[in-house]
Structure formats: structure tokens, C-alpha cells
Hints:
With 257 residues, the chain is of the alpha/beta class. It has twelve helices and eight strands.
Amino acid sequence: MRRKLFAANWKMNLTPVEGRALIAALRAILDPRAAQLARDRDVIVAPAFPVLAAAAQALAGASIALGAQNMHFEEKGAFTGEVSAAMLRAFGVTYVIVGHSERRQLFLESDELVGKRAAAVAAARFVPILCVGETADERDRGRTLEVVMRQLQAGLAGISTEQARRVVIAYEPVWAIGTGRTATPEQAATVHGALREALRDRFGATTADALPILYGGSVTPENVDSLLAKPDIDGALVGGASLKADSFARIATSGLA
Ligand code: PGA
């Protein structure tokens, strides 16, 4: 059975003090259920870079893992504003989000750049969470699958079948992010099914069938269960609702008794 993953993407929110407080509140709810969670899912938080140190400390001994929101593909050098694999490793990061639509849209990251980042993340033995998703305009023009497939192929261009065993895909329709307008479970399931097929073609069924495909875009405690009920939806990448301990904990425990 595929493991589920619930990832909190804090984006550019929370200072170190606020991040520490949120983790303490999350742990109060999730730590008592650690054994139950560990059976079928992973839970991570992805703070902004300057909050990683505080978050790492606050997570000591927790079953919640640490993620980063981006990573450069070079080991070091003149890349102002970027961070390297070694820097992230120093804080115990194990997951790295790449190709988030905010990076693509607001910071003009190309498919090719996202592919280089994803390859470097995998080569550094972190788990890349590769985000793909269409804009409202692309959906309206019937181009959803064409766009997400292009992003998927380019994003995975430098990933071997061996490395693909430790990759996560996140389908995040741009029109659903931060808008309160979630994709219906059916809309999401159609794209997740197509992504799974493409992953089978690329890596073979065994690898593709073990790889979590998350949904992201206005996931809430109210809609998470119906999304997770779809066979190819294996978890959630959560923005707004991850900034409150009770709502993210509710999402991360979706489907548990
Ligand atoms: P949202 O963000 O949950 O606030 O829509 C999701 C994301 O961008 O990962």
C-alpha cells in the first residue's frame, strides 16, 4: 500500500517564535497518535528558510519531519538569495518542495529550472515534492492535462527510476491555491489518474504505484476526506489551513479512527 503524506507549506508566514509555538501545538495533538500515524502516513512541515533552525529544535523527538520550500541545484557559489543541499541538510531537512506555482508564476521559474532543482534534490537524497498545476485560463481552454504533463516530464527529466522511489508529486491547480475554491474530488481524480498513468509509462508500474500524488489548493478539514476518498489521491499539500494547529492536525489525521 502507498504511504500517505500530509505536508504543511507555511510559505512566507511565521517567525521562528511563531513557528515554534505552532509546532508545539501540533505535537500536543499528533505526538500521542505517533504510532497510529506511522503505520500509513508521513507528516511534514515546510517553514521558510530562516525558521528552519527553530523548527528543527521544536521537532526534536517528534514524528513530524522537516521540509524546505525550495533548493538550488548547485552545491555552492554566487547565487544570491538561494540555499544549497548542504545548508538544508544541516537542519535535518528531508523533503524539499520544488516547482510550487508561486515560484513558477511570481518568480518566473521555468520547467527546465524546476527540473534541475528536482534532480539536485533527489541527488542530495532528499525527497522532492514536485508541484504541477494549470492556471484557470489553461483549464478553461481545455489544456489542463497538456500543461501538467509538460511540467511533470520536465520536472522529472533528471530523475532515474531508482531515485523515483523517493519522489512525491503534488497536483495543485493554480486557481485553487489560496482562493477557497477547491477542485472537486472528481476534477482532482481525473488529473491524478492521468499523472499516475504517465508515471507508469516513465518508471514502470511498481515504482509509479508506490509514489504518493498529493492534492493541494484550498484543502481544509471540511473537504480533505472527500478528496482522500479518491484512489489516486494520497495526501495533501496544505497552505492556509496549515497555519493553525487544530486544522492541520485534523487534515493530517484524515481517515484515521
Ligand atoms: P492553500 O495553498 O492551501 O492555501 O490553497 C496550498 C499550496 O499552495 O501549497
